[in-house]
Amino acid sequence: MNTMQVSFGEKKDNAAQAEHAVKMSARDVKVFYGDNEALHGINMDILENEVIAFIGPSGCGKSTFLRCLNRMNDTIDTARVTGLVTLDGKDIYDRSLDVVQLRAQVGMVFQKPNPFPKSIFENIAYGPRLHGLVDNKRDLDEVVESSLRRAGLWDEVKDRLEAPGTGLSGGQQQRLCIARAIAVSPEVILMDEPCSALDPIATSIIEELIDELKGSYTIAIVTHNMQQAARVSDKTAFFHLGNLVELNDTREIFTNPQDSRTEDYITGRFG
Amino acid sequence: MSNLVLMTLLLMVMALAYQLGLTRSKRVAVTTNGTGFRMHSRPTYHGMLVAFWAVVPAAAIFAVWSLAQPGIINALVLAQLPPEFQPTTDTEQRILLRRLANLASGFGLTEEAADYELAAAAYLNQLHGIGRTLMTALMAAVAATALVLAWRRIEPHLRARNQMESIIRWLLIICSTVAILTTVGIVLSMLGEAFRFFTFVNPLDFFFGTTWNPRFSTVGTDGQTGFGMLPLLWGTLMIALIALAVAIPVGLMAAIYMAEYAPSKVRSTAKPIIEVLAGIPTIVYGFFALITVGPFLNQLGASFGLEIRTTSALTAGVVMGIMIIPFISSLSDDIITQVPKAMRDGSLGLGATKSETIRKVVLPAALPGIVGAILLAASRAIGETMIVVLAAGNSPVLTANPFEAVSTMTVTIVNQLTGDLDFASPQSLVAFALGLTLFVITLLLNVVALVIVRKYREQYE
Questions:
Q1: What range defines the domain where residue B143 resides?
Q2: SUPFAM superfamilies given for it (chain A) (predicted)?
Q3: Per-residue model confidence as pLDDT tens digits over B125-135
Q4: Half-sphere exposure of B414 (CA within 13 A, CB side)
Q5: Do the beta carbons of residue A218 and residue A202 sit within 8 Å?
Q6: Total domains, chain A
Q7: What is the complex's ipTM, to 2 decimals?
Q8: Are B408 and B235 in contact (CB under 8 A)?
Q9: What CATH number should be reported for the domain holding residue A251?
Q10: What is the pLDDT of residues B88-117, one digit of tens each?
Q11: CB-CB neighbors (< 8 A) of A177 in chain B
Q12: Which candidate, B160, B128, B132, places its Cα nearest to that of B25?
C-alpha cells in the first residue's frame, strides 16, 4: 500500500458512471513514427461525461494516443495509425469520415497556450465562423460571451475583447484556448498537459474549470502531475513504454494498483 | 625590393614569430610544470600574439610610409629645381611632375628632355631609392624589436588568450567600419556631384519637370532645360509595379506550396532550383526579354487586337517579375515556416482545413514578414538596370500605357554616362542626381522593410 497523500474530488458517483454510454473506444490502436512503433495496440473505452486522465513517464505514448482521438497525428508526416478508433460507434479513420467535422466534435487544448495572434474576440469567433455555426453578428457575440463565461474568463476580458489574445497571461491564454474549443460545441475535449506551462494558481483555476465542464463534455486529459490526475479525473489510464498498463477508477489506481509498474510509478520509484 | 617581396618577407617573419612564440611558451610551461604552476594560455595563443606584434606594426609603417612618401619626394624635387623653371600654376606643376616621373621610369616620353629635367629625374630616382631603403630598414628594426619584446613577455601569467580576443574584436570592428565608411563615401560623393548639378539646374525643375530631353549645350550657357525627372520616375515605378504584379502571386503561392504542402524532399529540391532564378545574370534576362518574351507578348497582343511593342514597359516588367520571384518565394517560405506549429495545430484542432488554416492563421501571422520580403524585392526591381536597358525601349516619355516603350532612371544613368562626354557638364552630372534619388528611394524601401521584418520577429517571443 502506498503512503501517498492524495485528495479525491467528486468521485462518489462511480456507480452511476458505470451506466454511461461509451463515447469513444479504441481497439488495437498502434502508432508508427516511420518504422518505430510508438504505441503497441491500445484498447480503451472512454465513457460519456467522464474525465479520464492519461498518466505515465515521458515518452510512454500518452500524448500520441490522445492525438489519435481527433486524428491530429495526421499532421505529422511520418506518423501512421492502425487499429480502430470510434466516436459514437463510428470509425473515425474511415475514408468516408470528414476529418474537419471530427475535429469540430473532438476539440483539443494543447500543452502550450497557443492563442492566434488576433483579438480575444476573433480567437473565439474563429471556430464558429469556420463551421458556419452562427448566422449573424448577434449570435456570434452570444457564442463568444457564453464560451468565455464557461471558461471562466468573461469577467476578466469583457472590457477588452478587441485586445490581442497573446497579451493575456499564460493561465488566461490557456482558458482562452479552452473557450475557443468550447465555442464550436464539441462533444469530447482532449487536453494535452494543459497546465504544464502554468503556475499553481492558474493550474487550480483550470482544474476547477475541468470539473465544471465534465457535466457537458467528455474530457480526456494527459498529465505529468499525478496529484492533478487524482484531483480531476474519474478514471485514470497508466501508460508505460507504449502499452496501456492499467485502466481503472482513479481511486482504485491510486489506492490499490493492480500492476507493479503502476504502483512503482505512482509511488515515485520511476518516472 | 618590390612591395610583393616585402609582403612575402613579412609573411615569413609572421610564420617564424609564431614558431618562436610557440616554442618559448612550451619551454616556459615545461620549466614551471614542477612547481605545479600552469600556463594561463595555450601555446598557440602565445604564438599568435608574437606573430601579431612582429607583423602588424611593421605593416602599419609600410602603409603610412607608402601614403606619405610621394608627397614628400615631390616637394623635395620641386624645391631643388632652378628658380627659373619653377612651375607657377597647379596644372603646370602636375604636368611637370608627371613628365619627371616618366623620365625617371624611362617610359612615355614625348619630346627631348632638358638638362634640368634630367637632373631632376635622376634626383627623383635617387630619392625613391633612399626612401625605399629607409622604409625597409625601419620596418625590419620595428619588426625585430617588437618580436623580441613580445617573445620575452611570454610567461605563465601572460593572458595571451584574452589579448588575442581583443585583437580579434578590433579586427572585426575594422572590417565592419570599412563597409560602413564605403557606404558613407559613396553617398557623400554622390551628394557632392548632385549638388554641382543643381547649380546648373533648378531642383524644382528636376524633381517636378515632366519633360526629359537634355540637349547637349556647352558648359556655362544659360537655360539648361529638359531635365524633368518625372517621366523616368514614372517609367521606373511602372515597370517595378508590373514586376511585382507578376512576382507577388507566383512567388507567394510557390512559397505557400513549399512551406505547407510540399513533402520535405520536394521542398529541398525545389527551393534551390527556384533560387537559381536569382543567380541568372541580368544581362541574360535582358536578351531573354528582347528575343523571346517581347515578340511573344507582341504576337499575343496582336491576337487580341492590342498593339504591344516588342520593347515595352510590359516586356521589361514581366521579365523582371520572373527575376524577383525567388526573392519573394524564398524569403516568404522561410517566414511561413517560422510561424510556430502550435498556431497550425490550434487551428486544425478546431476543425479548420489546411487552406483555411493558411489563409486565416498562418498568412496573417506571417504577413509583416511577407510585406518585408515584397519590399526588398521591390527595391531590387527599382534598382535593376540591364533588363530595362535592353527591353524597355528607352523612350523617356510620360505615358500611362504599359504597352508603350518607356525609360527608367537606371537606363538614363547608363545613357548619360556612356560615350564621349565632359564630366563637368550637367548632361553627365545629372546621372549623380538621378543615382542619389534612386538611392534614397531604395533606401527608404529597405528601411521600411527592415522595420517591418524586425517587428515581426518580436511577435512570438
A1: 3-158
A2: P-loop containing nucleoside triphosphate hydrolases (SSF52540)
A3: 889 889 989 99
A4: 14
A5: no
A6: 1
A7: 0.84
A8: yes
A9: 3.40.50.300
A10: 788 888 888 888 888 887 776 667 777 788
A11: 346
A12: B160
